[in-house]
Amino acid sequence: MTETIKDSVKAFIIENFLFGDTSYELADTASLIENDIIDSTGVLELVAFIEDRFGIAMADADIVPANLDSLARISAFIAARSAVPVSA
Amino acid sequence: MCGFGGYFGSVPDGKALLEKMTVAIAHRGPDEQGVFTAPQAGLGHVRLSIVGLGDGQQPMSDASGELTIAFNGEIFNYVELRDELRAKGRRFRTSSDTEVILHLYDQMGEDCVSRLNGDFAFALWDNRRRRMLLARDRMGVRPLFYTMRAGTLYFASEVKALLQVPGISAEIDPIALDQIFTLWAPIAPRTPFKDIFELEPASLVVADERGVATRSYWSLEFADRDAPPRHVNEGKAAEELRTLLTDATRIRMRADVPVGSYLSGGLDSSIVSALAAGMAPQGLRTFSVTFDSAEHDESAFQNEMAVALGTDHRAVACRAGDIAKVFPDVVRYAERPVLRTAPAPLYQLSGLVRDTGLKVVLTGEGADEVFAGYDIFKESRVRRFCGRQPGSRIRPHLFRKLYPYLPGLKQQSPEYLAAFFGAGNDPLDDPLFSHRPRLKGTAATKMFFSGDLRARLAGYDAADELVSRLPEAFGRWHPLHQAQFLESRFLLPGYILSSQGDRMAMAHGVEGRFPFLDHRLVEFAAGLPPEMKLKGLVEKHILREATKDLLPPSIGKRTKQPYRAPDSHSFSGRGEFDYVRTAMGEEAIAAGGLFNAKAVTKLYEKCRARPASGFRDNAAFVGILSTQLWLQTFTGTSIRTAEAA
């Protein structure tokens, strides 16, 4: 891959939830909920992005903060499901 | 009802100024206009004739000519007060409630307000003492704004009248904007207009040669949580409540013109309509809004209630595009940015009432604050419940039960629900515990603020200021009462009664009356133990008990569905209006200087592409658009408007 999973997810978050604010220091482990980056609808947008972009079908049981509440967790979840290394 | 403007101090051509001020608020009083001037004082008035049709002209002076009043609102107990004053030898020249205030003031001075049961704002010139008294009702139903310029006090029912004063121009107050984008409303006395203030509910201004002093004459108070409850017998409490509510409605039917009623299909307006229908031998007219989106529409319940009561019922349809069509007018009349479109259908509704020939309507507003009807009260209880066992997977399911009408929540796992609602995270002793998730979610909209605005705000925190404004006893109250106080004292006058109430109704010269905000009822409800209001997760329990014979079970047992209207997607799709595209465009955003133009462009595109955006995106869209319209309307910042595309 020319783009890492993390880069791709990060670009989506910046574009879709931070509306292009690249000055926001989005730490890999920062909680997206506690930092008010996503709300309840945002989670559904994130799930739709992961399914569309990475071809992963997410079950209800997958949609939990443990998998999706930070850049690091999302990347690890996608990597585990798609068997693609987080760092290409 | 009506509107007024005036001054205390030196004004070169007072009469001409007063005439300009009254023209600016002519919509509040289309029936008559009048001005009064004295050395150092002036009052202007526009009248909506409801009581004393032929003899209630204003400004009104007493027989001595020493006291003159300009009054907006109604004194509902004026009949009893007049009888009482007559018994003491007072002679009345008119049949109006306005004259009652003059007599009462003559007898009691400024303490006269404690005897008034009503929705009022007035300015009273006392020529003997050379002083101007301004007063506002307890719950903040009627508005009153004021400002000082060059040693003169100017005041008016709406800010647009003050903007007629030479030297006064509109400039946005960044702190107020921060408060709106955090709390939904400015914290009075602050308004969105820099250096223009709002008289707080239940307050007085006394202006004389010594200066201008403000004081409160009433406050909403609850008993300490450990104090023995004032009411222990639920049956007796329900009986007393019914008596009070019936009387509150009865005295709000007093008018020399027909009185109608709003009917939303919910519990509160149905109760008011049912009581009113029983008191209107000539029949009651009811009015409602319908939506073409099933998510917002309540017409089935409205029709059921109208049929049950036999009212002459009319509805205004709020169709796709209607909100966008009236939104610039909504901002012009509301005089403030808003984060939701909910005022727009109410603006349409008051237009329908006026077209039907009525100018007075009863509404069910206030019941949710007084009897703990809002979801936020239940949510707070569930958050405390979850907070006791933060690891529980079962407890957070309750959040889904609270918001069955929010599709986004249905699909969330318990872990996410707990995280969104801060269950287990927020300290239980936080004074704003009940409102933290809302404040946090709303404040997220401030990510669109420009760098310049952020710099001007310099780290200001609206929530901290809110905490600083709480009464000393607040910490001793039951958590439900704390939450009720926050809703009743700040959001009710700051948003519900103003942006959705007075200003939208008065835009069409319609007076709303609020039986649930009768201060006797408010004080009674404040004295009820929390469990009589919120029983388990059933809201307004005691109110349901007190009125269960009035309504069909389908209405009486209905779970609260908050009044909402379609938000950002009202402004996109077919019928998109040019003004929206222009106001949200980079050029206009940059000209306004308040928001980040690039981020707003992305938000605009996102909301257009996916209408089902969540709370934050919707609130940000509506908040930014209304702020841009506010700038255009009041400061002349160039945002070109055009007809529908």
TrEMBL record, chain A:
Carrier domain: residues covered: 1-82
Name by which UniProt lists this protein: Acyl carrier protein
Organism this protein belongs to: Sinorhizobium chiapasense
InterPro entries for the chain: ACP-like_sf (IPR036736), PP-bd_ACP (IPR009081)
Signal peptide: none
Top-level lineage group: Bacteria
From TrEMBL, chain B:
Enzyme Commission number(s) from the entry: 6.3.5.4
Primary enzyme class: ligase
Pathway in which this enzyme or protein is active: Amino-acid biosynthesis; L-asparagine biosynthesis; L-asparagine from L-aspartate (L-Gln route): step 1/1
Family annotation (SUPFAM superfamilies): Adenine nucleotide alpha hydrolases-like (SSF52402), N-terminal nucleophile aminohydrolases (Ntn hydrolases) (SSF56235)
Reaction(s) catalysed by this chain's protein: L-aspartate + L-glutamine + ATP + H2O = L-asparagine + L-glutamate + AMP + diphosphate + H(+)
A Pfam family: GATase_7
Keywords for this protein: ATP-binding, Glutamine amidotransferase, Ligase, Nucleotide-binding
Coiled-coil segments on the chain, per record: none
Domain of life: Bacteria
Xref: NCBIfam families: asn_synth_AEB
PANTHER family xrefs: ASPARAGINE SYNTHETASE, ASPARAGINE SYNTHETASE (GLUTAMINE-HYDROLYZING)
Name of the protein in question: asparagine synthase (glutamine-hydrolyzing)
